[in-house]
Amino acid sequence: MDLVPALEEPLKKVLGPPTAKVMAEHLGLHTVGDLLHHYPRRYEERGQLTHLADLPMDEHVTVVAMVADARLHTFASSKAPRGKGQRLEVTITDGSGRLQLVFFGNGVHKPHKELLPGTRAMFAGKVSVFNRRLQLAHPAYELLRGDSEETVETWAGALIPIYPATAKLESWKIGKAIQTVLPSAQEAVDPVPAALREGRGLVPLPEALLKIHRPHTKADIEDARSRLKWDEAFVLQVALARRRHADAQLPAVARKPKPDGLLTAFDDRLPFTLTQGQQKVSKEIFDDLATEHPMHRLLQGEVGSGKTMVALRAMLAVVDAGGQAAMLAPTEVLAQQHHRSIVEMMGELAEGGMLGGAEQATKVVVLTGSMGAAARRQALLDLVTGEAGIVIGTHALIEDKVQFHDLGLVVVDEQHRFGVEQRDALRGKGKQPPHLLVMTATPIPRTVAMTVFGDLETSVLDQLPAGRSPIASHVVPAADKPHFLARAWERVREEVGNGHQAYVVCPRIGDEEDDPKKAGKKKSPEDEAEKRPPLAVLEVADQLAKGPLQGLKVEVLHGRMHPDDKDAVMRRFAAGETDVLVATTVIEVGVNVPNATAMVIMDADRFGVSQLHQLRGRVGRGSAPGLCLLVTEMPEASPARQRLNSVASTLDGFELSRIDLEQRREGDVLGQAQSGARTSLRMLAVIEDEEIIAEAREEAATLVAADPELEHLPGLRTALDALLDEEREQYLEKG
How far is 245 from 222, CA to CA, in rounded Å? Predict the structure, then answer.
């Protein structure tokens, strides 16, 4: 985080090329400073043993434990047919649980000599299951003898730091590397102004770095953590506060709707009244649009809470005020669909310049990459002349050829699918910066909104419109109870029998080339079940059409189909000509078919919590109740099953997004693992540290208001530059 010569020293020079290469490739650590900010995940106490009962499956772990017993077995195998194969089984214990270690072949000799009952050591490896028991195969280990000079020095103090490690570099090797560079911590420049640091009782940064890596007491760890958490929250909030400050200086055209223009005509023809939430959020948006600085607003709303309606009214208000509005959608399927539903909602108001169009009408055009040349030329012409007040499109909107008469508002749908450059390019098409409304159906807890979208004002739609039906969700354990899966297909047939339609979602398409390298290896049956590839659309559709759903009209939809074919499939499904649509997650966002009431998600454990919630939102959009079945082969006690149970147990997206964040690593919160740049959150847990983030936000706002350029705070400027190398600052700007 600190651009200081000693901390900028490349690890190659300090640790030697081989170690530095592994650190760069597997842990993303390149300089001494990076390594000092690679904090321990937890600490083991010499006198205490790890809880072996709570080890996570399939994760690389480091445990401190004692050898309970060790046995050498011989067996016959293809490589050693005469019973000369050797297998060493070592049981280690932490006083409460036990864990099996196995070593094979020539690898048994050294551990057989060293791992005698009563020996204490650190063991590192990947947790797997064999014969229903947890085991580590061929773990690396480091004996804790406490006699030789080096061991005493390295494991001095009662607390042993356990670092996030990889199979290529065990925790204790990282620990030794950190010991080598620790003296440089003295040169870390402190980003937090001294008065603020003393006022909050925080230790100086060099001291925090020493205490996090070599604590003598638990109090040391607490001091260091409080300090390092505060740094992360504060530097991030200063970056966002500067962004808000800069945005507030930009000019924009105020857009106020005409008293009886397009918006009034639209509201008059609505067959229903807006929910209170929609009215409140619309007012917030209209107030923003009426100011001479660009609006930057995030609109979050549950799946189906009527965000599109709110966005459409904002677009109409801007058209009323003489501007144009553009809506950016992540996929062609979605752009076409938004276009259809907006034209339907507007009726003759969308027929500007056409016979039968109302007098206040405007033109609504769609622009996607796969349009024919003539249609595209016409759409571009309508935009540049101002004939079209509203355009809906994909990335195609961003191309240089696209020019607007007067772009006043950009609405970005499903914001997490868009890169920064794309939004910037679109914003650059206005004569002055247009207003920006970002919509997301992924509920975002308040702290994350403060962290990730700290430069956007937030509006939340949390009521569902009247007439929406509840969705019942159930987990279908296909491996434990195969008859449940058979029953799931019967339920789909029943829904179709009642005149409804269903989705079946799979993680994969199924026409990928098989990797010849993988094909050659024989796998054990245990491996097969664990590692079989995720179910694929093409195979599943085929099996269903020939088997449990024989006689129903089954079609497939996935991302590699030609856009025209995708659109045709969606149209047939929307028109009710198809009974069951077997699809990948292309249907996750915004697909709206009120007659679809059932969804079966295959290999549901391969999807994230918020993704499952998004998918489920595609059913129950009409008056009939929705049904969502989550099919999995994961065993009952696995974390994957617990995750699915939590999705089945609540429809509250905010609750689920909290669960999701607690289960994922924090680093992923800020989008694509920080757009490839180093993740800034190593210590801060976005959910738990809500107070720290809120306080840091206030302090940052005060500080930036007083000194926007940070002229009097060189240390903070340095830390910001390190956190936000140019690319990253851009990325942060747009979430």
Answer: 34
Picking from 154, 166, 124, 165, the residue whose alpha carbon sits closest to that of residue 41 is 165
Q: Which tokens in the block code for residue 283?
A: 């007012």
User: DSSP secondary-structure letter at 297?
Assistant: E
Q: Which residues of 456-475 are buried (b: 16+ CB within 10 A; e: fewer)?
A: bebbbbeebbeebbebebeb
d(CA 428, CA 497): 52
* SS3 of residue 729 by DSSP: helix
Task: For residue 295, give the nearest of 344, 346, 256 by alpha carbon.
Answer: 256
**CB neighbours of 433 closer than 8 A, spacing ≥ 6?**
250, 251, 252, 294, 427
Cα gap 497→627, rounded to integer Å: 15
Could you give the C-alpha distances from 710 to 4, 202, 696, 725, in angstroms and in order? 18, 21, 16, 17
pLDDT along the chain (735 residues), means of 10: 63 87 87 88 67 70 85 76 79 83 86 89 82 82 65 53 80 87 86 89 93 90 92 87 83 88 90 88 95 88 80 94 90 85 88 68 89 90 92 84 90 65 70 86 70 75 71 90 91 94 88 47 42 79 91 89 84 91 76 87 88 84 87 85 88 75 51 36 71 88 89 82 55 44
- CA atoms of 358 and 464, how far apart (whole Å): 31
List Cα–Cα distances, 713 to 200, 323, 704, in angstroms.
18, 42, 11
Q: Select from 640, 597, 641, 643 the least CA-distant residue to 616.
A: 597
Contact 476, 645 (CB under 8 A): no
- C-alpha–C-alpha distance, residues 49 and 94, integer Å: 5
CB 339 within 8 A of CB 366: yes
| End-to-end Cα separation, the chain, in angstroms | 20
Between CA 162 and CA 48 the distance in angstroms is 14
Amino acid at 528: E
Sheet with 501-505, edge to edge strand ranges: 471-477, 626-632, 596-601, 501-505, 580-583, 554-557
CB atoms within 10 A of CB 499: 10
